[in-house]
């Protein structure tokens, strides 16, 4: 199957995990930002997580360097543009970019300026390429509940203007859903859609609680429903969509290798799965690579691809007009 020629949709991609290494070097040189090296190969080694990462927390250490250059409106706009530009080259027709605005306030930007800058960059790319995008605001589980409320409140004026959903991300501890129930409830009242990172580590019950307590419509990763019967059942029965990221899941040791990834078994059992990169730079991947991995490992056929593509269309947080457009590509 020639995946390069096929249209693609990406629903789970982190902005700060997807910077071009060249851009980091360029910005650091121009602004006098201290980084480990100006050598491209060395910076790539700093950015890319090894396939033999010890854990999710080990993987997340790779995000410190990109955030050094994501502290101005100009840089955020450029980085968002470049992400959609790169995706468009892979025949990605629609993508939802997620990021945590509170990580970009270190040089005085307020949350509204940060969100607007990323939206501006995405719009710049839409004007030049055959791609559409929307933005998901991530709240960090390592921060306080008050900070989650701050993101929800300051992002609400952008609903209908490019911001579509709220997310919880970062290191995963058991029972986090109960802690953040109030801000996510408020977000839903405002009109945010809800996607939650859960079940990326060995805690399937987090997926169950993300659906029951937080009303998650989609789950980032969800690998460990395989070990929690009740979570598996609710995901399947309520058709909660899983945003699966094979390379990332091997790196973080959610699975030991690609052959053990549950995406194919989930798909065959009627669970709605989608294919995503998670972090293009940190995982040294793109949508073409992720598609090739899944379909080569499990000998999937074009009908499987079509089903997964349509899962992505139906699950995306775009308007109906965009969804109808996306259906016509395949």
Automatic annotation (TrEMBL):
The active site is at 200 (proton donor). Keywords: Hydrolase, Metal-binding, Nucleotide metabolism, Zinc. This is Adenosine deaminase. It holds the Pfam family A_deaminase. It is an enzyme of class 3 (hydrolase). Belongs to the metallo-dependent hydrolases superfamily. Adenosine and AMP deaminases family. Adenosine deaminase subfamily. The keyword Zinc applies. The record marks 221 as: Important for catalytic activity. Its EC number is 3.5.4.4. Zn(2+) binds at residues 12, 14, 197, 278. Substrate binds at residues 14, 16. Signal peptide: none annotated. Coiled coil: none annotated. It comes from Peribacillus loiseleuriae. InterPro entries: A_deaminase (IPR028893), A_deaminase_dom (IPR001365), Ado/ade_deaminase (IPR006330), Metal_Hydrolase (IPR032466).
